[in-house]
Design a protein that fits this description.
The protein is of the alpha+beta class and 378 residues long. It has twelve helices and 15 strands. Strand 1 and strand 2 form a beta hairpin. The radius of gyration is 22 Å and the shape is globular.
């Protein structure tokens, strides 16, 4: 009997919660995607999550759901020390590299509409003059899964003082930062053995703009944010500067002090989205239920990508997305089999425990489910 169809329910109390969690008093076969928890199990999960976040001195928002049921939603810490505003549903975060999952979804939408194929090569959309002939060997698929990696953004730009000084000067002067960065990426070219995705997803943003004739901002707004009701999301919103807390230096930092993180051309399609945790929850729910694209994104991941693709890292049914800037840190952990989603958005940086914290929150539910499954021999 298929493993995902076998669940031991003898341990469940005969209680039905008003929130929709059902129980059964005898061994029953149900689909893991529709699994439910008893009141005792739910309380145990919530207690474990509370302790995990408290131990990490977590500041931010935490959402956990199992299939259609929200198991956990809480907010911790201070959003702004000057106003003493507490973190709540309306708190916005730089979700940084989680932007890559949004860019990946946009690429798949273009595939759905027949405007793009994953085997298309970059020379079809970038550099019409043919200055970079090597682009004929770089497919969209290879960009998505980092089979080919442009490492320039991370190593040649972010860690190069001269490049950063040039970009800051261009931002102040209102010059075309995006063109400068694009040329830098293409001039450096591809490298082997890199797992950096910044440059790859920057170029994918250019592909989106070339195909649609729209800015990345406008396309994402209409086809992602508006489509699934992400009303508090934007691609670099300069009208609402953000603030974050650095755990290492024990100091607050305002986004306005860093020109780079206020500039669309610098952030762009690789790490430019700002959103509330509720909006990102909507996005990952849409990924899970398949409403975002006609082609099932998770199915694509499992079919074609060994450990990375469309902005996600994954291992079997477990998918992960991470985002971290100089202000904020975010994590999403997803199981496409159980439809579990654990999402943390924090206004902290420098907390080395945050990654482990996100995984522990996810495992509070996932381990509970695994404990309910029968062994293969049963």
């Amino acid at each position: 009997m298929n493993r995902i169809k076998r669940i031991v329910c003898a341990v469940l109390a005969a209680v039905t919660l008003t929130t929709g969690f059902a129980a059964c008093s005898e061994k029953t076969e149900i689909d893991v995607a529709n699994i439910t928890l008893t009141s005792d199990q739910l309380q145990d999960v919530q207690t474990k999550i509370d302790k995990t976040l408290a131990d990490a001195k977590f500041s931010g928002g935490a959402y956990v759901k199992l299939n259609k049921n929200v198991l956990y939603e809480k907010y911790f810490g201070t959003e702004n020390p000057d106003t003493e505003q507490k973190i709540n549903k309306t708190t916005r975060y730089q979700v940084s590299s989680m932007t890559k999952t949004i860019t990946g979804a946009a690429i798949l939408q273009l595939c759905d509409s027949g405007k793009l194929e994953l085997d298309d090569t970059l020379d079809m959309y970038i550099d019409a003059k043919g200055s970079y002939k090597y682009l004929k060997k770089v497919s969209i698929a290879k960009l998505l899964d980092l089979e080919v990696s442009f490492g320039a953004y991370n190593y040649e730009i972010l860690k190069d003082k001269e490049s950063m000084r040039t970009i800051k000067k261009m931002i102040k002067n209102g010059e075309d930062v995006k063109a400068y960065i694009t040329k830098h990426i293409l001039d450096v070219g591809t490298e082997s053995g890199s797992n950096q995705a910044h440059s790859n997803y920057y170029l994918l943003g250019l592909v989106i703009e070339k195909i649609t004739g729209e800015t990345y901002k406008d396309y994402i707004q209409k086809n992602i944010f508006d489509k699934i009701g992400m009303k508090d999301s934007a691609v670099v919103n300069q009208k609402q500067p953000l603030i974050g807390y650095n755990v290492d230096t024990e100091s607050w930092r305002d986004e306005k002090t860093n020109l780079l993180y206020n500039d669309y051309g610098f952030m762009f399609s690789s790490f430019g989205v700002t959103a509330t945790i509720g909006d990102m929850f909507k996005f990952y729910n849409a990924v899970l239920d398949g409403t975002l694209t006609k082609t099932n994104l998770i199915k694509k991941l499992n079919e074609f990508y060994s450990n990375y693709g469309f902005g996600f890292k994954h291992d079997g049914h477990n998918l992960y997305a991470y985002g971290g800037t100089s202000l904020h840190t975010s994590f999403a952990y997803i199981n496409d089999e159980t439809k579990e989603l654990a999402l943390l958005c924090s206004n902290q940086v420098g907390n080395i425990r945050l990654n482990a914290t996100g995984k522990a929150v996810y495992n509070a539910v996932n381990s509970k489910i695994n404990g309910m499954l029968l062994d293969e021999e049963s």
